[in-house]
Amino acid sequence: MQSLFVLPRTAQEPDSIAVQAEQGSVSWAELEDRARRVAQGLRAEGVGEQEAWAILARNRLEWPELALGNARAGSRYVPVNYHLTVAEMAELLTDSASRLLVVGLDDADIGRRAAAAAGIDKVIVLGAGYDAWLDEQSPDPLPECSAGAALQYTGGTTGRSKGVIRSGSALNASELTRPFAQWGAMTQMPSGAQMMLVTPIYHALGGGVLMASMALGDPLIITDRWDPVRMLELIEQHHVAGVPMVPTQFIRLLKLDPEVRHRYDVSSLQWVLHTAAPCPEWAKHQMIDWFGPVVVELYGSSEGVGPVIATSQEWLAHPGTVGRATAMLELSILDDDGNDLPQGEIGTIHAKRIDGTPSYHGDPEKSAAMVRPDGRFTVGDVGWLDDEGYLFLADRRVDLIIVGGTNIYPAEIEAVLTQHPGVTDAAVFGLPHPDWGQEVKAVVQPADGMQLDVAALTEFARARLAPFKVPASIDVDPALPREASGKLKKHQLRKRYIEEEAGR
Fold first, then answer.
1. How high does pLDDT run on average in the chain?
2. Could you give the C-alpha distances from 412 to 247, 273, 280, 306, in angstroms and in order?
3. Is the pLDDT of residue 155 over 80?
4. Which domains does the chain have, with CATH numbers?
């Protein structure tokens, strides 16, 4: 029988607050008790070791106990993006062979429809029904088993979403804090300090920080809807030491009125982790100037191309880098024929992990296509390494624009456009051109209350970019399609413009 507690802070401070959210708060002892009941409930519902079940919920109080209960039960929880359609959700539930669905009240209707389409009979709605279900379960720990993990699905921004099975040796449920504590240490995450989550927990970043917070004994504030001013208020009020963010949140913070930005005391911050999308250099500089040298960049992927880490000091010494590989992996840059490229040359980024290669759930062909015979694998990102091993990103292969044989990387153009005071977000992609193969298209989202002059914005870009990089046309859109994780859905925009052109 495994021990009653698995979290280090429970034995030390069982009655102190572990998690607080809009729904209330739980102590460390309550968190572990509820997690044991979740594990017992999963088994009672027929979810065995390594079998899947799903969570469709916005950020709320129950997430930590669900994740911890999954780990204790040895099962695989599938975090479902609540922005998906019923058909897309049903596809994930079917592909993962999920046995049951836990769903938040806000998404109960769409969740039930997706579950029905996937043939799932058991749907548990968070709130009173979930609490009653939990009360029926035993508070005793299950016998020792392999630790459960998330079956994380990729964002699906370049095709059908794929479930990722990460490499790694078997770990017992009683040892589950070890790898998350190691991950926290690799990313410079403080131990025993107040954390806050403002990114969605269904995403790999939110889920990773959630588990690392529990492993390191960090009390956690969970917010549902992100608001830049509210976040600053909470940092000051609760002396928040750490928060993960995405670059679009950086930009929205920096677009606040300076008087508002500097109204709040953010001196408690020790760790601001950002990832999920390229961060413009101007934004990174300004965030470090504002928050101090506490900004840490993480490059990686659900498949495990990472973590690659850059501290503020490293980034200032190597502007634009996403960091160096941690002890977990080796990085290399290959050309289209699979040959290693020398330092400084752009190619496809490959990683080799010390704990083996990942795979895609139920898709051996895609798994094989990702991995080379020597164990190196790629998710299609493009970049280069300098002579000190620092990695720099060019873009994703799928986003590369080729105009008359010249490679153009959208991230560079997006960084310039978002620097304009009237722009809060930008998407740059290639559209077919009869003579040049492709042309550069930009769609921008205006900052709150701003009217954009497209001609002036084009001149702004022309003053900062080589002529062949300047967008052939710029459109204004009130809200660009992004995942809550921060990833831009360029494929949606590109498809829309191509279809509109074909319909003319």
1. 90
2. 14, 22, 8, 22
3. no
4. 10-151 (3.40.50.980), 400-502 (3.30.300.30)
